[in-house]
Amino acid sequence: MLFSKAITATRVIYLSPIFTRRFISYSSSFYTFNPFLPSRKSPEVEEYLGSDSKEIVFSIKSWFKRKDDNLIDRIFEILTRNGDLSSAELELSQLKLKLNEDFVLKVLNNGKDVLSCLKFFDWSGRQVGYFHTRATFNAIFKILSREKLMSLMLDFLDTYRTHKGMHRVRFYDTLVVGYAVAGKPDIALHMFGTMRFQGLDLDPFAYHVFVNALVEQSCFFVAEVVFKQICLRGLENVITSCIRVKSFCKQDKLQEGVTFLHGLESRGQVVNDHMVGVLVDAHCKKRKFAEARKLMEDFWGLAKIENADGLRSRDLVKAGRIDGAMDFLRTKKLLEGYIPDVFRYNTLICRLLRESRLHDVFDLLMEMIEENISPDKVTMNAALCFFCKAGMVDVALELYNSRSEFGLSLNSLSYNYLINTLVGDGSVDEAYQVLKDSIQQGWFPGNKTSSIIAEALCREGKLDKMKELVIIALELNVMPSDTVCVKFISSLCKANRVEDGYLIYGELNRVKKLTYKYTFFDLIRGFNRLNRGDMAARLLIEMQESGHRPSRDLYRAVICCICNMDNPEQQFLKLLELQLSHQEPSCHIYNFFIDGAGHAKRPDLARKVYELMPRNGIEPNNTSKLLMLQSYLKGERIADAMNLYYDLSDPGRKLNNTMVVGLCKANKPGLGLEVLKNLREKKLLPSLECYEELVRSLCTIKNYDLVIEVIDDLLKTGRDISSFIGNLILLHSLKSRELYRALVQSGFMTRPTSKSGSLTLGELVGLFSGGFRKNSHMENFDEIVEQCFPPDIFTYNMLLRRLSMADGLDQFINMFHKMVRRGYQPNCMTYDTIIHGLLKHGRRHEALKWLDEAQRRGFDVMENTKYLI
Fold first, then answer.
1. If you write DSSP's letter for every residue of 77-88 in order, what string do you get?
2. Where do the coiled-coil regions begin and end (predicted)?
3. Which of 214, 332, 389, 791 lies 20 to 30 A from 672 at CA?
């Protein structure tokens, strides 16, 4: 009565015009590409579910609920609720159950999950006065086999074999049946041989289970031997015939199977629906649909053909002919009143879900309710997936939370749908809880779902939950995917939890070697930030053992970190020793260490490596000498650098340039100029960088006479003034008129500085440092600069600064727009210059507009500009 009311209520909800119209219009355009990505509700569905989702949940739950015995419900509630077996056993004992074979079988057959069934089987077998029978053993075997828990089943059987005296059932029969069901017919055959040697024999049931397992494992020769044994003992029956038909089908001997059925018919023996169905199924899998139909017609009057019809519809679905399968069933239903069973509905619904045909899924669910077909676990899982794909995540989650009420045990597909939908809905905590529940039930998500939830947890900074998830997986001997591990360790390192990242890395390595290159990068950089050079050095070696080659920058970062620790020399030499022990010594490795020590400003350590090379039979190459020279220069050991430079018999171009540039960066431009002059005397051509660094360092000390001398020498080489040198000249012209005076005194004012323009550098400096007369050169000042050197964004920033110092602010703004039109992208300094100039001239309102534009682009202004605001 209650169930019929629930169906009526469900129909009222589902068939109401507003629900049908709104839902179907939504689902018709929904989700045609990836079934695992979470959906979004349409506004109509959102509006409808706001008031009626609870009623939908109630109706579906009413349909799902099973009429189980209250006592059995109580037993499984105790087993599910209590993780501790001792607590569960105490509560079960208080129920004072009268254990016998029928009761135990009833409990096992109504089991809601495998773990609870195993707990009850174990508990009942230890109760005083009760012993498991062959039927109860078979029942637990079927449960384990159905859930594909073969390893657990084999452990169970091995334990059973070692305790022969404890059981009051046919010992060998149980073992043969158990190993046969577990997919180990070889062990079952061994047990069969042992018992026959002892004068024992199987009963009819065990014989048929055994021969069926042999056929399933394609052991056809042995199966024929067992078939003969069955016939010799007079045990042949309709089950034997069914297994023979299955054997013909598995051997692809379909015609022999058909002949066998006709032989049974001619001898007046039983031909049942199952035999016909197996042959029909085999023909359909070979896409022999016409032959399958003829076979059904041949045996129409001899057997119920509902099973064969159902198998035919299932095979049409598997062949991708989903519309044909639906038309076939509708025709049968219309003409013959055929009502498919729950298995046929499930086959259609699952395929329709894969194709995201939610309208048709909805129709089939309604059909099941109308025909009063009780849903099984597959139906429940399919309905849960349906609500996920329809974007009804609240309904799906409510059904999941109420799963114990009607015995819903989620499969992997449902877990995937639910987790992905919750993540897409932003309910990461709920998705995480569902995932934890699934792991406790023995299911761990696939790579795609793992990656989705891992990315969500890491993105939202829920690293402790992610850590717990990984540890649980490892405790269950499940290795998360490499993608999940890499994302998690990277997130921990970015959150400055590198110790936790290394801990997870170590735990994962115990299960499976984690060799992803960027994981090592993240961990090494993380330990470098913590000044843990010892750990960074260890990971550097492990990285190479995993087949990756560290870059020069990574070596440099690790060595610099070591040099910042206590007792750096010992750590440095230890790393070098380890490195040399892992691969053949070469200049390449020694050079990495010289370079790293140089960047750490430890030329003493670099020198030790340099001197170690010839002692180990390695001749320093030009790169070694270059890096050693740079080490001295960076460590400000100028005398040692000069000695090394002059000791070299024939320094190459790179060494010469390095010497000049290094001396300038070490604030020794005089020595750098001396080296450059020596090169010019030897008719050698220094690099442009040498001239640029000399100009920069000489401008820094305001020795403008030497600046002019260097520029003059640059022009004599046939080169033009670079943007870098030109910008330096303009910058110092902007600061004072000293450079201009030096140019006048040197006679450089009339010296042409560009092949493309008539303007000299002296005239440009005079124009830039002498101020502007009204409307003089203001609109095309960038074009004037182009006559001396190519401008860049730094040049335009200085032009804007110079224009902001003049009275004509209109030209100042026009220059900005002209710069943008010519393809130069404004930067932070550009906006700061404009805002500062406007504020200095009292145009605060305009300045605030420019400030808003700068902030929208992600730029901020300098402190002195903020002070004016």
1. HHHHH-SSHHHH
2. none
3. 791
